[in-house]
């Protein structure tokens, strides 16, 4: 704190002649002063992100022996990650679940965002707050509430039974990959709504008027103007949902059952019961790399399509 | 706005869809209060009778009280620290034109795009290698990390429309930098700062994954709840507790949004 106050002082006392060449340079360069003010935040964040990551990378090349970790370089952990069929199946299932979840959430949220952006004219802010409010309540409670909805004795089963529509609880509701997808879609809905809404709101309405004047119908207007211009929001939404759901272990643990287990569950176990931190690190890093590749791929593909279109 | 007439036509199917979507968002959460007043150990329809026994049980639970206090302590420390870091970040970015600031800012925003389990595990590894015991302090560190990006985004909105000439006037009148911040900047961006504090507190208070890896023997409230979920007989108590948390969170977030909307340059969203 001391640092930032004293650093911004030269600028404010410019009339007073002061210090050597460095001070002059500092006074002249806006960027330098900006970085000085940014430095406490930047230092804390960079240190807190880089040091643990570096340590995790190092650990992934070491070996766990009993309760100790032997610091000899080895690629064994990565070999295990890429040859063990269980991990391969988990990777594929995790990709399937979080990919489906991201796509489904974007698909169901798009019309909602569209409605608020184009058809709500009064109290827009209230609508936006209403759509995002559930997101702020405890994640754990939102997941738990789906257990209440889908459970063996849950709201759907007991509701249908007391209405006499079914005689036995539907068992497939809970503890399945589908339950995980529904729960995650609900939990991350705000991350789809907001970016899509913002990109729709930004669209210049006169473009739509021009298209209408030139004879485009509603469908053509949507496909040729609204949809392409809202793509940045759609891509952002896909990424914002895919990334965190790929690393979630709470939802699969609570509503997934054995068939709904995901990668993060095994990572969590490696740092808990299974007590193999190096293998856990290797798994976590592989996860990170796969997420980055998927996201980079998505961004690259959309850029290619955009360039082709122009 | 200059929207064409065809856009003002109400779209009924879309409106029905929107209402259905909101129902999908709120229905599961609203089941918590519904069943929390139900006099039955099993969470199932049909509802039996009205009771407040689950609330009484919960309020009498000492472990819950301890966990609640832990969460409040972590939430307050994390939100204050994250907001201080956020003020530096947001002020620097909005006050100065900084060359090459985008990738640098990207580093600060990284926690938004890294799965929290990876950050939690990585911090856990570092702490254990350094021999630092897990405690509420380590949880706070983790929470500051995830709160800073949210704080910066919230504060940037409030700093952005801030009138530079106010600060310049104060400087011309001979105030020093710290005094200017305290007397001029702070009062003007106060709603933004309060909003950031509230949002960071909410995030920290609800955060589970990082806390799961970084908490020692003192559990935070979400960790306490997660522990309770394993026992079916404890579930009604969780419903009661969950209802209280949802009620408080809704109030706090509403307050934060309202405060943000009252900032010096808040866009007038109403009625356009």
Report on this model:
The complex is a heterodimer of chains A (310) and B (272). Chain A is built from 15 helices and two strands. Chain A has two domains: 2-60, no CATH class; 76-309, MetI-like (MetI-like fold, Orthogonal Bundle), CATH 1.10.3720.10. Chain A has a two-stranded antiparallel sheet. In chain A, helix 3 (30-60) crosses helix 15 (277-309). By secondary structure, chain A is mostly helical. Chain B is mainly α. Chain B has a single domain (61-260), classed as MetI-like fold (Orthogonal Bundle). Chain B is 72% helix and 0% strand. Chain B has twelve helices and no strands. Chain B has helices spanning 5-8, 12-36, 53-59, 62-95, 101-109, 116-129, 136-160, 164-172, 177-206, 209-214, 221-228, 235-260. In chain B, helix 4 crosses helix 9 (177-206). Chain B is globular and about 70 Å long. Mean pLDDT of chain B is 83; it is low at 1-5 and 264-272.
| Weakly predicted, low-confidence segments of chain A | 1-17
From the alpha-carbon coordinates, what is the Rg of chain A to the nearest angstrom? Answer: 26 Å
User: What Rg of chain B, in angstroms, do the CA atoms define?
Assistant: 23 Å
- CATH topology category name of the largest domain in chain A: MetI-like fold
Strand content of chain B: under 5%
Q: For the report, how would you describe the main beta sheet of chain B?
A: none
Number of helices of chain B: 12
Structural class of chain B: mainly alpha
Strand-and-helix sequence of chain A, N→C?
HHHEEHHHHHHHHHHHH
Number of contiguous helices of chain A = 15
| Shape annotation of chain B | globular
Q: Unreliable runs of chain B, pLDDT <50, ≥5 residues?
A: 1-5, 264-272
Number of strands of chain B: 0
Helix proportion of residues of chain A, in percent? over 70%
- Cα(first) to Cα(last) distance of chain B is 6 Å
CATH architecture of the largest domain in chain A: Orthogonal Bundle
Number of strands of chain A: 2
The total number of structural domains of chain A is 2
**What is the CATH superfamily label of chain B?**
MetI-like
The fraction of residues assigned to DSSP E strands of chain A is under 5%
